[in-house]
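Chapter summary example.
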Amino acid sequence: MFLKVGHRFDMLKSFIYLDVELLHQLIGAAEDGLVTEQAVESGGEGSVSGRAGFKGLGIEAKHAGSNKTTTQLDDTDSARFTRLIQFCKTNSEQAEWLSVEDPASAIEATTGKLVELTADTYVPDFIKYVSQYKQISGVLELAGQLKGLVPGINDDDVQSVSSMNSKMSPIASLMKDKLVICGDCAGFQFRCVGKIKPQYVIGDEELEGDEYRIVGKVRSSWKRGEWKNMLSLPGMDFMSREQRRKMMKEEPTEENKNQYVEGPAIQLQILAIYV
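The structure predicted for these 275 residues follows.
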């Protein structure tokens, strides 16, 4: 049985990522509270009716048939997300909603807007390396301990390991288990970047993919020709404010360019990634 939401049949979404905490905040604000269940009445001809007090966003249809049953359905996060997006599209000015589809709309993606865009997503190699550093550092330390015991490991190798540890340890301790994901819009130059909370990744889904839909709140934006270090972006929680301010003034070098995001771009508080 399909339920008609807002007079349109909504296509099923496959979520890669869904920040449930942020979702509950947004849908609670839109609906004056968080609904936990809804009543659905079904008639003899299979039609449905009923409402759940969703400020006009609930399930509605004409009742047909004399036999009528009422079912209580738990409200799912997927259904909440669908209602939130419908509310935002219907009340775009109130919700500060923006669908980024071309360079003209990308210019309007300013701080505070809730935006939706299509992008090819990836985790930067630098972030992958740092996030896996704990496992890598154990191997490097073992290599140092095996000097003299295993042929081919010499003082130069040990010095290289020590130098790498000294550079990576501070960054790894700042990042902990956090991930960063980037998205490149197809068809025009525009990029987004945001922090991923591992607990909200859905199952074993792959964060990297082509033409994923991304929804999120804009934290900051920068123009063409400007570069922002991923670790210095506000809200990333990777370093102190003083460290961020210092790094934000630095220009990337060829050696560390993979740590930067070139504009035009936005930083998102990511709500959802889905296909």
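To summarize the output: The mean pLDDT is 76.
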